[in-house]
Amino acid sequence: MTRPLVSIENLTVAYPLGRRILGDADMLKAVNNVSLDIPRGGFVGLVGESGSGKTTLGRAILKAAPITGGQIIYDNGTDQFDVGAMSKRQEKAYRKHAQLIFQDPYAALSPRMTVRDIIAEPIELLGLTKSRAETDEMVRDIASKCRLNLEHLRRYPHAFSGGQRQRISIARTLAARPKFVVADECVAALDVSIQADILNLLKSLQRDLDLTILFISHDLSVVAHVCDHVAVIYLGEIVEAGPTRQLFANPQHDYTKTLLAAIPSLDPDRKSRIPAFERGRVDVTKG
Ligand code: ADP
Ligand code: MG
């Protein structure tokens, strides 16, 4: 086994609960003593109900939530980052490796910028190209990989549907060619009919671009559709993790069993669950 791309060890992210004049404030452990390996090239699901700490864990890996205990190591064989202890210079370098796909494609795109400029922005911010022509080439390349019509690059976001906007948002996230992305509820805001499109796009991008993905969702059936591994988080703690098929076929923890039982479209006979997922059916069970 090679080293995981991201290894998380005993991670705790705690927020102060209210204010205290004297003494320490009580702390809410949004993520509590979490250990998780994300293998290179993996499509790893992080599933749990609202408030369980999914976003906080994803943000911590991207250095966007305070690490109060434990360690996150990113190591692609050439570059290593100790996420909780980076210099400003390392942080900038790390941003080329690890990025976030937003949940809400409406909020994520500036209405005053053309699609071309939206996708070009991270390339320019990270100084990846030397000329506008070179930037344009990168923009066109990622746009076509995200199945966007190149004619559309001149338009503004309001001209597009939710699904198209999410593809634009994904193109922007991947424009600077990160190797690791956190996709946080990236289909939750979309119609069911469009969800499968975006999930299939992510799958193909993962292969084309050699991406490693942490896929956050409250929706087990969506996770089953795309993820090769799953971690189940409950009240800030990972209660169970493993290969998707194995975990779904034979859940060990009561919380996982409850989540599985809450998917209404599944046959109560557990054995028949897996074939239903393999047919590629995507259900939306808002949690
Ligand atoms: P999820 O993404 O699974 O819905 P979150 O990670 O957003 O869960 O939140 C986990 C817990 O941490 C919640 O109780 C939430 O209220 C709390 N929390 C998240 N961010 C902050 C913050 N910046 N300050 C204080 N509490 C927070
Ligand atoms: Mg969240």
Judged by helices, strands and strand pairing, the structural class is alpha/beta
The CATH H-level homologous superfamily of the largest domain: P-loop containing nucleotide triphosphate hydrolases
Radius of gyration: 19 Å
CATH fold type of the largest domain: Rossmann fold
Task: Write down the secondary-structure element order.
Answer: EEEHEEHEHHHHEHEHEEHHH
**Spatial order of the strands forming the largest sheet:** 6-7-8-3-9-10
CATH architecture of the largest domain: 3-Layer(aba) Sandwich
- Beta strands, count: 10
Number of helical regions: 11
Task: Write out the distinct hetero groups bound to the structure.
Answer: adenosine-5'-diphosphate, magnesium ion
Mean pLDDT: 89
Proportion of beta-strand residues: 15-25%
CATH class identity of the largest domain: Alpha Beta
The shape, in one word, is globular
Keywords:
alpha/beta; Rossmann fold; six-stranded mixed β-sheet; 11 helices; 24% strand; disordered C terminus; binds magnesium ion
What would you say this structure looks like, in words?
This protein is an alpha/beta fold and 287 residues long. The protein has helices spanning 54-61, 88-95, 105-108, 115-125, 132-145, 162-175, 192-209, 220-226, 244-249, 254-261, 273-278; strands spanning 6-17, 26-38, 43-47, 69-75, 80-82, 98-101, 180-184, 212-217, 229-234, 237-243. 36% of the residues lie in helices and 24% in strands. The strands form 2 sheets. Strands 6-7-8-3-9-10 form a 6-stranded mixed beta sheet, sandwiched between helices. Strands 2-1-4-5 form a 4-stranded antiparallel beta sheet. The longest helix is centred in the last third of the chain and has 18 residues, at 192-209. It is globular and about 55 Å long.
